[in-house]
């Protein structure tokens, strides 16, 4: 009986530790967007039009007249706030991602787009 009780206590303790860790990772998932995950977000949501290099030279990008995100003149003239709002709310033929991505993920995409500058 004592051995069984010990096993149950250990199982509950270990289960709680794993559950607590999973909940912590889940909660911090959007608040701690890494450079790798920003690149993954860009690849998943942006690259089909803007291209991996941001230049908008894809077939879909040409059809939709996607902005060249790597253009240094454009990069200088556009604010982070404008980039954020364009991603959040959409602009022209670009869809809105405000309901699909968290604000922290959009912030990470803004930083990623800044890194595409030629």
Identify the notable features of this structure and list them briefly.
Cytochrome Bc1 Complex, Chain D, domain 2, globular, mainly alpha
Major sheet description: none
Instruction: Assign the CATH superfamily of the largest domain.
Output: Cytochrome c-like domain
Helical segment count? 7
CATH hierarchy class name of the largest domain: Mainly Alpha
Give me the count of strands: 0
Alpha-carbon distance between the two ends: 70 Å
Strand percentage lies at under 5%
Note poorly predicted spans.
9-30
According to CATH, the fold-level topology of the largest domain is Cytochrome Bc1 Complex, Chain D, domain 2
Alpha carbon gyration radius:
21 Å
Quick check: average pLDDT? 82
User: N-to-C SSE series?
Assistant: HHHHHHH
Identify the overall geometry.
Answer: globular
Short description:
With 118 residues, the chain is an all-alpha fold. The relative contact order is 0.13. Helix 2 (35-45) crosses helix 7 (103-114).
What does this structure look like?
This protein has 118 residues and is mainly α. The protein folds into 2 domains: 1-30; 35-114, Cytochrome Bc1 Complex, Chain D, domain 2 (Orthogonal Bundle). Helix content is 64%, strand content 0%. The protein is built from 7 helices and no strands. Helix 2 (35-45) packs across helix 7 (103-114) and helix 6 packs across helix 7 (103-114). The longest helix is centred in the N-terminal third of the chain and has 27 residues, at 2-28. It is globular and about 30 Å long.
